[in-house]
């Protein structure tokens, strides 16, 4: 039987030997040094009794030590839970509810109040190094990680990805790379990482970089274009909003980005006009990815693809009509996909799992079409969401919370474009009798419970909501009129 993930990661680090694979705080770290850090962290976790199936939360940044700890947690077969910045106290408490340990490299680690112990990253990395290749204890059927997104209740929902799924992923296997990924991998000489390596996107592009023979270069905070220039980065991840700011900055005060070869846009749609402007200013460097937390990457457009297109999906994708069957090319419908590393369902949410995962397919709840050449085009959403800084949030919790305010009789939330965050929440409110809602009060209410990203930045007072022919509130008309 083939070794489970992260066996391939250990192989990569071992093969790298003295070659630098990480640059952090102006210091280079070789494959052999990073593998030694993984050994120490794995030994440290085992000394604390961490083993297969145990929940381990990661409150970590982008250092080589953070990478080693995440890989080590997978070596011992743990269920890894990434904790992203910006969560409210209630949301963070929800994520940490059933983890045995929390590994932290930040000062607020001891204040997390998890149910288990808090392990300092430095302590794990100080464990003994026996020099022996770490023994991978992961079991195929165990959950390898929980990847969180916002849920319909306002609390994060967790997509459960098994070790079998992570082992089947194409990321670490060059022979399985789709054509677009193969083109991208050739440009990942120096990949700029920031935020947290517990992020699904950052870790997977980071692993792809290692598999391509590149170097991970850390930058926090990731000020563009300064960080790209300073670290001589050839590639990085970027949101639509940050891409727009970079393009504007290059127009007014150009930096030397001659070494830049790839910017991976993900998290929200890139409008054709923005794509053309970026190509005109930055050159042929923009790769536009489409994926979901539940599936990982679904498709990717290269700089050679027509703006607005998401390229040819390399995995199974069906566009289904109202009857549930596939529709011909050029016809809009809901997208259903199957990817090698997709999640098995939502952690401890069987009803929601049954709604989205069926017969091996994942219902994306996105609308789109395939053209006659097999290219994918998104045309809308079959769900009410807003994508802020590449993170997806449901509008339902926002509406329910707004409706609890004494000045609000009815509330509707829609996504609208925003130059700073990609999208933002626009609230349409029917005032309660003799009351006048104020944006500041409504923002404070939502931010305190759901986080700043969900707080409305615009408020429109309406007498009543327009209705669809079926008698339901027509939020598309609200958005169009707003």
TrEMBL record:
Pfam families in the record: AMP-binding, AMP-binding_C
A GO MF label: acid-thiol ligase activity
Domain AMP-dependent synthetase/ligase: 16-347
Domain AMP-binding enzyme C-terminal: 398-472
PROSITE patterns listed in its UniProt record: AMP_BINDING
Domain of life according to the entry: Bacteria
InterPro entries: AMP-bd_C, AMP-bd_C_sf, AMP-binding_CS, AMP-dep_synth/lig_dom, ANL_N_sf, ATP-dep_AMP-bd_enzyme
PANTHER family in UniProt: LONG-CHAIN-FATTY-ACID--COA LIGASE (PTHR43767), NONRIBOSOMAL PEPTIDE SYNTHASE PES1 (EUROFUNG)-RELATED (PTHR43767:SF1)
Protein name: AMP-binding protein
Species this chain originates from: Streptomyces boncukensis
């Amino acid at each position: 039987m083939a070794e489970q993930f992260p066996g391939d990661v250990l192989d990569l680090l071992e093969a790298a030997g003295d070659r630098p694979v990480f640059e952090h705080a102006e210091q280079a770290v070789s494959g052999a040094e990073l593998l030694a850090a993984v050994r120490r962290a794995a030994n440290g976790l085992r000394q604390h009794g961490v083993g297969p199936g145990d929940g381990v939360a990661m409150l970590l940044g982008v250092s080589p030590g953070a990478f080693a700890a995440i890989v080590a947690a997978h070596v011992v077969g743990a269920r890894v839970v990434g904790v992203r910045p910006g969560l409210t106290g209630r949301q963070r408490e929800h994520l940490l509810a059933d983890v045995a340990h929390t590994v932290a490299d930040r000062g607020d680690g001891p204040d997390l109040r998890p149910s288990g112990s808090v392990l300092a990253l430095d302590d794990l990395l100080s464990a003994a190094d026996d020099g022996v290749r770490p023994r991978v204890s992961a079991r195929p059927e165990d959950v390898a990680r929980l990847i969180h997104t916002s849920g319909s209740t306002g609390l994060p929902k967790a997509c459960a990805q098994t070790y079998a799924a992570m082992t089947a992923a194409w990321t670490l296997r060059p022979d399985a790379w789709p054509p677009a990924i193969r083109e991208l991998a050739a440009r990942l000489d120096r990949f700029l990482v920031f935020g947290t390596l517990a992020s699904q996107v950052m870790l997977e592009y980071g692993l792809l970089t290692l598999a391509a023979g590149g170097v991970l270069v850390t930058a926090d905070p990731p000020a563009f274009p300064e960080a790209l220039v300073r670290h001589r980065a050839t590639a990085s991840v970027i949101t639509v909003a940050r891409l727009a700011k970079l393009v504007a900055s290059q127009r007014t005060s150009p930096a030397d980005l001659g070494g830049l070869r790839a910017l991976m846009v993900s998290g929200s749609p890139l409008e054709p006009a923005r794509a053309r402007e970026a190509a005109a200013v930055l050159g042929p460097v923009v790769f536009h990815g489409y994926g979901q937390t539940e599936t990982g990457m679904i498709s990717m457009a290269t700089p050679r693809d027509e703006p607005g297109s998401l390229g040819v999906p390399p995995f199974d994708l069906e566009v289904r009509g109202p009857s549930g069957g596939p529709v011909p090319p050029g016809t809009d419908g809901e997208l259903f996909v199957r990817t090698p590393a997709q999640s098995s369902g939502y952690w401890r949410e069987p009803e929601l799992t049954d709604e989205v995962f069926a017969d091996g397919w994942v219902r994306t709840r996105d609308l789109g079409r395939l053209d006659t050449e097999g290219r994918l085009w998104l045309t809308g959403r079959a769900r009410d969401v807003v994508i802020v800084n590449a993170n997806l949030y449901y509008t339902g919790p926002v509406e329910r919370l707004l409706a609890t305010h004494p000045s609000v009789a009815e509330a509707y939330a829609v996504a609208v474009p925003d130059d700073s965050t990609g999208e933002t929440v626009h609230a349409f409110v029917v005032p309660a009798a003799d009351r006048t809602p104020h944006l500041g009060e409504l923002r404070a209410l939502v931010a305190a419970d759901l986080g700043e990203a969900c707080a409305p930045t615009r408020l429109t007072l309406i007498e009543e909501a327009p209705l669809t022919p079926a008698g339901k509130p027509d939020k598309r008309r609200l958005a169009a009129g707003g």
